[in-house]
Amino acid sequence: MSDARRTALGLLAAFAVAVAAAPLLPRWALFLVAVALGRGLVALGLLLLIRTGLVSFGQGLFFAVGAYAAGTAGSRLHVGDAVALVLLGAVAAAAVAGVLGLLLARYRTIFFAMLSLAFSMIAYGLLVESPALGSTDGFNVHPATVAGVPFAGRAEAYAPYLLALAVAAAAALALDRFQRTHLGRLAPAVRENELRVEYMGASVRNVVHLNLVIAAALAGAGGAVTALAVGHIDPEMAYWTTSGEFVFVTIVAGTSSVAAPFAGAILLELLRSYAVQHAPNTWQLVMGATMLGIILALPGGLWSIFTRRRGARP
Amino acid sequence: MSAILETEGLVKRFGAVAAADGISVRVEEGTVVGLIGGNGAGKTTFLNLVTGHLAPTSGTVRFEGRDITGLPSRRITRLGICRSFQIPQVFASLTARENLLVGLGIVAMGRGAFVGSGLGGEPPEEVADRVLDRFHLAAHRDRPAGVLPEGVRKLLDVAMALSVKPRILLLDEPTSGVSADEKFALMDLVLGAIREERVTVLFVEHDMELVRTCTERVLAFHEGRVIADGPPAAVLEAPEVRRLVVGEPGLREGAC
Ligand SMILES: Nc1ncnc2c1ncn2[C@@H]1O[C@H](COP(=O)(O)OP(=O)(O)OP(=O)(O)O)[C@@H](O)[C@H]1O
Ligand SMILES: [Mg+2]
Questions:
Q1: Which residue's C-alpha comes closest to atom 8 of ligand 1?
Q2: Could you tell me the residue range of the domain that residue A227 belongs to?
Q3: What ipTM, to 2 d.p.?
């Protein structure tokens, strides 16, 4: 079986199991998974950037753009359909990345990381200073509908969960496919040797720019999903600690599979809710210790547990 | 025969050093040309100028009659000028096959295909396997390029340049880092593959025996100038070449 097919079947199987499990899950778990998958989408975009050789410490910017675009369209323009709102969030974030990428695509390593961070801090500052968008408080998002059915009553818990699952599965599948195209294959080539990529006839800057836009679209979709699941958005989404968490999830999960960021995000949310309940003052300690343990024990990230075993098979 | 590549008064100064000091050469289509010169003679600089990696201080480069001076190297590559490197430039964590697929994929994209071959093209995967076979690299197909021995990486570097079907191929010391007894076998392999494709070749070489047997014309460089140009026997016997190039084995160190 080809890698592409194995990934596709794995994702579809995970999707089917998650949908079937919905009635068995308590409300808090449905909510937790929906929120985690929203963040996992951002991490999926970061995975693409890391495979291109870039680490962004400002993905919170695109996460927030997606959320604010979806939230604003819902309350001001009365767009109700959740899928349309998620697409809108993705497009808005991609458009912002299209512009910022003109500058970002020129930078690498720590300069790229710092520049992405700088943009996100400016965005945070602008959101905090925008009374029309609720300033520091943000605003509540209008309940959306899926296929005309509102997120209310019994559907209220299930709808965001199913929406997040569907968007996450579709995004993971699409990104996996993209990475197997001629264009997608240029990402690791750029990471390894930019000079040679140019000498094979492709523009490194265009490749980087494109991957920035794709990563931003994923972050924007994640922001929209999160906004619809939580029902509220605020500038915290663009804050640098949020961006830091996305990097945390991506590294801890590992970058060898498009499923890894989602697994990592769910794990982080579980860890967070556990720590907040049982050790509210040592949450940072738990996170730091986890990161340390994984870097020491599994430098390839959590997902490398699976790939390593598969590699060992004859 | 018409000139496929022509330079006129190419000058490149690095501060006080003139790495190219008025280089005017014509390369006829379909020929195999050797480029010799001692360390720091300006051979690599010349390739860098022709391929757009460096912009000349003055002078022009023409390819098939068209002025290509100052174009970025990706544009020049797409026109049909490809090169290999003195220090192999491969994608270390990608397998040998994936290394080839990068360039072949770019060619397929030029035909409008994002997967597969595009209209009228051959599937890149098949081309890659054939190139690996022809360069005796099949055994290394799925190994990361970073772990391959220097000589194999060198061959892969040349294979990458040739795989995208250039009109002219510029090779920077294809046999350096290869043991003495393997050099001729390697050049046979490279030139055999090249003849099949009817590509014009210009290669930088320090081994004079190899130059004598493998080329039909030789350019000798010294301090950024062409000091001799003609059939191998004549150039290698020229007193100036004997004094400044041949009699100066020297150390060979340096980057692309
Ligand atoms: N990027 C650069 N910056 C400054 N000086 C350079 C640069 N590239 C080359 N030079 C200088 O230009 C001269 C020619 O160098 P070049 O690399 O072209 O020589 P070469 O003929 O390829 O030598 P070798 O046989 O050692 O590879 C040398 O004096 C070198 O130090
Ligand atoms: Mg050189």
A1: B45
A2: 3-239
A3: 0.92
